[in-house]
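Please fill in the sequence for the structure shown.

STRUCTURE ENCODING:
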């Protein structure tokens, strides 16, 4: 199983394990006729959620080097995420960052979260290694295939309260 497939499986299992309410998650499979389709479409506690997943196999060693590239999310993916947010859904981009190109138990594996807003604006941006270390909305790998999903759950709660 590839890193992105494994990451997708782990995010789904983590969400199902942490949500104390109704949840439905559909893994999407894009092909040559379906481009720009998000990796996951879900309804979590009544909130429609679209999630695009990206893998960063290895971080650059220098703090000023770009670690997260906004351009990795294609224009069509960004358009779909914006449309979903404007229509009232929650749109997220999650980057799974592997410190050494693969995951070992001692790696500091993290996942920054970017969101799209109802007006179509986003905080999706390029981040350097130093900026990534200071990013506050992050999922951490907890081991055994589970991620801390509290930031996703907090975004869902905020979205419901709007």
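FILLED IN BY: designer on duty
SEQUENCE:
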């Amino acid at each position: 199983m590839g890193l992105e497939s494994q990451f997708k499986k782990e995010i789904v299992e983590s969400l199902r394990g942490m949500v104390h309410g109704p949840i439905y998650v559909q893994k999407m499979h894009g092909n040559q006729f379906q481009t720009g389709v998000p990796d996951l479409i879900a309804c979590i506690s009544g909130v429609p959620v679209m999630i695009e997943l990206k893998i960063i196999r290895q971080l650059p060693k220098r703090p000023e080097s770009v670690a997260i590239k906004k351009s990795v999310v294609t224009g069509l993916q960004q358009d779909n995420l914006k449309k979903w947010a404007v229509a009232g859904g929650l749109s997220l981009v999650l980057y799974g960052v592997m410190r050494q190109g693969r995951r070992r138990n001692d790696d500091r594996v993290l996942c920054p979260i970017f969101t799209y807003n109802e007006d179509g604006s986003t905080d999706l941006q390029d981040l350097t290694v130093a900026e990534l270390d200071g990013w506050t909305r992050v999922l951490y790998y907890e081991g055994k295939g589970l991620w801390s999903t509290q930031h996703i759950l907090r975004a869902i709660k905020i979205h419901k309260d709007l």
